[in-house]
Design a protein that fits this description.
The protein is α+β, with helices and mostly antiparallel strands. About 20% of the residues lie in helices and about 35% in strands. The chain is globular. Bound molecules: 3-(2-carboxyethyl)benzoic acid.
């Protein structure tokens, strides 16, 4: 079906010329998409290099032929099993984030239904100044409102929510990329955490609509798409101001999600070291060295990883981790 891997940035041109590639994501100083080559996505999240990881790109490759299209501002590629889509919205002023988000989500929901890939599996959301208050509402919370309005207008069901992350980038533009399929994945929650869609309203006036992970059985092996995972137990942030302890709590949450996924449907994934790769968002570059050693201990030193300097959606969170797993069969 498809694979996702971190590759050396020096190989980028080769991937962009390769017809099997669904998308190439590069990380740096600006957020942009490219009309000339719609598979090229840039996100304003600077990479942090612990070793020689500083210049990594993320490459999505299909194992089946791809058809491509563009519809209502959304570029997409399909291979018969998945649809990979992305869009970049210029916000019309800072206070317009809920409207921009609602519009983006409504466009995505309409597109995936029209295209026959109506089951969203995983969504990545990036926009600047995520912790800034505008009209007394933090922009992350305003984003949650817009997303909720769009899903609400389409009559969503809690057990059909996609896995997701919402991360603060460093340049203008709301960038969303996502994958969708013809049939649902299996939602996985975390017994250590209150489901985000049931958070009390002190975190956002409308609840964050995502599941902790989606387990998707494909014909050629299952995938687990884990949402952005952080140092939250119940619904509260733990270990404020302590990056190492936040990391350890996050690793415990990832372990709990993996254990739950295995109960939903065994996929061969039993330990953190089996994950395919990690995307680690850090609020403070200064935490990198300590955390990289923690990642070695918890996930094994062979674990592929990329560190991105980012604002996390709660002001008291210092890090968040995105994880992906592909069953090898
Ligand atoms: C949390 O667990 C941390 O709003 O889409 C993680 C993943 C978080 C996704 C989202 C937010 C989102 O609540 C924040």
């Amino acid at each position: 079906n498809f694979t996702v891997a971190l590759e050396a940035a020096s190989t980028e041109q080769r991937w962009l010329n390769d017809d099997s590639v669904l998308a190439v994501l590069r990380f740096g100083t600006h957020t942009a998409t490219n009309r000339g080559n719609p598979r090229e996505i840039s996100i304003a999240l600077p990479t942090l290099g612990a070793r020689n990881d500083a210049s990594l790109i993320e490459v999505w490759r299909s194992t089946a032929p791809i058809a491509r299209g563009n519809d209502t501002g959304i570029s997409y590629a399909t291979n018969g099993a998945i649809l990979f889509g992305h869009l970049l919205i210029e916000e019309g002023g800072e206070g317009e984030l809920p409207t921009a988000t609602r519009g983006a989500y409504l466009a995505i929901l309409r597109l995936v239904e029209r295209a026959g890939y109506s089951r969203l599996l995983r969504m990545w959301n990036y926009f600047p100044a995520i912790n800034r208050d505008v009209d007394e509402l933090e922009r992350y919370r305003a984003f949650c409102v817009g997303r909720h309005e769009a899903f609400g207008a389409r009559g969503f069901e809690e057990h059909r929510l996609a896995a997701a992350c919402a991360v603060g980038s460093r340049a203008p533009g709301l960038l969303i990329y996502f994958i969708a399929a013809r049939e649902s994945g299996l939602p996985v929650e975390n017994p250590r955490q209150v489901s985000a869609y049931r958070y009390p309203d002190c975190y956002a006036p409308r609840s964050p609509l995502f599941s902790r992970a989606i387990l998707k059985p494909w014909r050629d092996g299952a995938h687990l798409y884990v949402s952005g995972t952080a140092s939250i137990v119940g619904h509260c942030t733990c270990h404020v101001d302590n990056a190492v302890e936040q990391f350890r709590e996050t690793a415990r949450n990832l372990e709990a999600v993996i254990a739950t996924a295995n109960r939903v449907r065994p996929s061969g994934l039993t330990s953190l070291a089996q994950l395919s790769h990690l995307k680690i968002y850090l609020r403070r570059a200064a935490d990198l060295a300590l955390l990289d050693a923690e990642v070695d201990r918890a996930f094994g030193s062979a674990m592929p990883r990329i560190y991105l300097l980012a604002e996390i959606c709660r002001r008291d969170l210092l890090l968040e981790i995105d994880a992906f797993y592909a069953e090898a069969i």
